[in-house]
Specification:
Double Stranded RNA Binding Domain; globular; Alpha-Beta Plaits; 24% strand; alpha+beta; 303 residues; single chain; 7 helices
């Protein structure tokens, strides 16, 4: 953050120098001055966003889980579209994308998927996507070409490291192994090496089928379970903080946050910030930074 502050200060000093030169009679500096101001505005916004990534868990890696909601096969297809969107976002931003588990849908799409996003501030950015995402389009699965609405939920949790103590007792776990049901490619196991772990006290279920080794899949699933238990603690803490502050708003991580409309017009609208983008294809190809940045800055305004 200090480096970003110093960079902003240098840009502002350059703009001030240009302004002084212009006041002394120098001509032809208007474009340079406008460019310096635009750069200062961009750096100021980046600095403000970086200040919003101040929670301890913001700097951790992230797990993104996607589940289809209402809408049948359209919802399953929509969930797969979201999975691709976040993979492309991860590639655009330089994060490493690791698919942990994937359950194919009936006929098309997916029933569920979880991926690990690795990189600086991965959770701080990705948490902006937590909630229900709505798709409106002419369904490719409808013989009468009618418009359908589909929903899918996105959950984002921080990956915990060894510095955070989460007690998990063996007696509280049920561990099942199964064969990967992937549709093909590198993530399909030829043995029953996929692992599903159920945490009995909370009912939290995690699974991993990414590795060919059952032992490595169990290790990854346990790491995911620790992260989900940690996220549960964070959520309870936030609810208690809101209650103590007399906040009347419901803390609902399943609320609809964004609509992607492909017909009768084309637009993506974030219902939390009001941001609208007309280039739907670019958004679905992973250009999510404007939405994430707007949400982070809106939270800054709430504070």
């Amino acid at each position: 953050m200090r480096d970003r502050g110093q960079a902003l200060r240098r840009v502002l000093e350059d703009a001030e120098t240009l302004l002084e030169l212009e006041s002394e009679g120098e001509s032809g500096l208007d474009d340079d001055f406008a460019a310096a101001l635009a750069e200062a505005e961009r750096r100021a916004e980046d600095l403000e966003v970086s200040m919003m990534l101040s929670d301890e868990e913001d700097h951790h890696n992230a797990y993104i889980s996607i589940h289809p909601g209402a809408g049948g096969v359209d919802a399953q297809d929509w969930a797969e579209m979201l999975l691709r969107m976040y993979q492309r976002w991860s590639e655009r931003t330089g994060f490493r994308w690791e698919l942990q588990e994937l359950l194919p849908g009936d006929g098309a799409g997916i029933k569920s998927a979880t991926a690990r996003v690795v990189g600086p501030d991965a959770y701080g950015w990705a948490k902006a996507e937590r909630g229900v995402h709505r798709l409106v389009r002419i369904s490719p699965f409808d013989a009468q070409a009618r418009r359908h609405t589909a929903f899918a939920s996105v959950d984002v949790i921080p990956e915990v490291d060894d510095s955070i103590e989460i007690e998990i007792l063996d007696k509280d776990l049920r561990v099942d192994t199964f064969r990967s049901s992937g549709a093909g490619g590198q993530h399909v196991n030829v043995t029953d090496s996929a692992v599903r772990i159920t945490h009995l006290p909370t009912g939290i279920v995690v699974s991993c089928q990414d590795e060919r080794s059952q032992h490595r899949n169990r290790d990854k699933a346990m790491k995911m379970l620790r992260s989900r238990l940690y996220e549960r603690i964070l959520r309870e803490r936030e609810e208690a903080r809101a209650a103590a502050a007399g906040d009347k708003k419901q803390i609902d991580f399943g609320s609809q946050i964004r609509s992607y409309v492909l017909a009768p017009y084309r637009m993506v609208k974030d219902h939390r910030t009001g941001l609208e983008v007309g280039d739907v294809d670019r958004v679905l190809d992973g250009d999510l930074e404007p939405f994430m940045k707007a949400w982070l800055l809106s939270r800054s305004g709430d504070g």
